[in-house]
Structures are given as C-alpha cells and as structure tokens.
Amino acid sequence: MHEALRAVLRRRFPDADEVEVHELAVIAGGYSRETFRFDAHIVRNGSREVLPMILRKDPPRESAILHSDRQLEHDLLERLRRHTSLPVSESYLVEQDPSYFGEAAMILQRMPGSGEVSALFHGDRTHEAEAIATQLCEYIAQLHLTDPALLNPDGRLDDPRGVGIDVSSWERYMESTIDYYLRSYDDFAFDPVPVFRDAYLYLKHTRPRPLPLRVVHGDFNPANFLYENGRVTAIIDWENAHIGDPREDLGWLKLMDLLSNTNIFGSVRAEGGFLGLYNKLTGFGVTEEEVNYFQIFTGAHIGVPVVSAVKRRIDRKHLELLHLYLTQPVLVSELAFTQLLGYPNPLAGAQA
Fold it and tell me: Which domains, ranges and CATH numbers included, belong to the chain?
C-alpha cells in the first residue's frame, strides 16, 4: 500500500522531488469504509513538508454496508470549504482505479482533535462540553441555512443512492423516501415482531409540516466530530449527505445521543437548550415532537442499508464478521423504535 500511496500522491503533488509515506496504520471503527492514517512527507527543493492524511477506501462491493460515491463526497467537501465556515477536511484526491487500493478510494486531510466523546460528557468537563455542543448546534444550523444550489449545483445529492427519491417538493421527498423504506423492508424482513415495518407505516401516516429541503449531513452523530481545547475541530464522514429535511440531522443526533450515552442535546445552555438555539439561528421553529418523528425517519434512512447488510450475512451471501456484530445496534435501534412508537413496556410491571 505504501507504493500505491506514493504513486497517487506524486500525481497530486507533481512539483515534489520526493513523496514519502510514514506511520501508515489502520483506524479502528466505522462500519462502511476502510480507513487508514498516515503522514505524507512532501520534499521540494530540499524542504520537507509533513501533511497528516487519511485514506478512505471502499470495501468489496458484496460486503459493503452503504454504497456511496467517493467523488461525490470529495466534491461536497470542497464546496463546503468554499461556501461555509464548517470545519471539514480538504480532500486531496479521489482514485477510482481499483488497481491501486482494490476499490475506489479518497485521500483526505487528517484533522486535529479527539473523537473520544464519552469522557467529554461524563465527568467534570461541563464547560467544555457546553462549548462544544453549542458549536455543533451552530454548525448544523449553518449547514441548514446554506443555499443548497451552492452545495448541490449538479443535483447529484438529490438521490445519491439511486433509489428513486424525488426532491421536486417536500411532499414528494417524504413520500418517495418512505416508499423506499417500505420497498426495502421485503429485503430484510426477518424480525419476528415487524417493528421496522410498523415504524415505516407510522412515518407514512403521521407526517409533520413541511420545511425547506436542504443539504443534510445524513449521519450527524457523536462519533462524527473531533474536538480539541474546547473547540470543534472537524465534522467528518459526509458520505451519507443528501438533499433532505433539516430535522433529519436533529432526529439522528438525538437518537444517537441516547444510544451513545452522550449528552450533546442536554449540554447547550443558551436559548433554553440545543433546540431553542437551533430555532433562534434558523427560524425553523422545530418542536420536540418533530424531532422525535425524525428520530425514526433518519433511523430508517441509516438503518435500511445496515439491516440489509445484516440480512445478507444471515443468508450467508458473504462471511464478514462485522455484519454479525451489527446485529447488536440493529436490535437496540429496534427497541428504541418501540419506545418512540409508544409500545407498552413489558418490564413496566416488574419495575413498579
């Protein structure tokens, strides 16, 4: 892999006298891409520049959890850098030729900061947690206020999965997305209690009021930001970005805040909390009930490809160990859906 990295980086830095790759290592975690860290040493005229980098490569297609486009992610990152002040990585290049890394790959700037959030929200770091949660709220509000024509000028974020999503209006977006969920259910219907199908039908019949469609991150959760010295240093993993309802990012963050045992929503003090500050910044007037609806909606958007991947492993279409591990968050998400849908708690009597 060292030689492949050197080869593609020499094309990216054609004025370099030498390109060296140091400290190459796998980054653990993450379900959808294979990720490595390394330092690129770019030598020009006897001067050495060290650039911290990330290699993100697609897994083999048969075992991929989420099929996404590295070129699209690259282009979005560059547009975010150009049109917003969100802290995102520079994307150095995309390599589509599988002869280099086995599958399509991209090389990104490795941003400073820590992704370890459990310590941040549990202990005596209250002021730092508040500052970081407030910045996250401000950044996601800024994303949702950015003209989607600037971030999606070619329309490739309208339906990046190619599953028939129609963004001609909010109503058609919601209808076509929920229809996609319902169509997908037949691919993974292995649950003895059809909670997911019930959730998709709930979404279909209880839609909230419309909001303007915007570019949404699509996986805005406690694992997808970095921080350092009380500041958010990066918002990462934009592969699931798409045109959607801004409340999707709020619902997913709230659900993952619960499942991750963090407290981003509860750490904002300004304007009465995260939602109050977000509404002041955007003017959207989002309610708690709407956020709860979009916990299910975005849980489905993330969950459909994940549960489908688990089902392919159960059917032995491949033997990836990770997909067996993913049954745990799938079952936890199913339990969370039952609570959001108001199912009776079977342990209520025992807890009384």
Answer: 22-109 (3.30.200.20), 126-343 (3.90.1200.10)
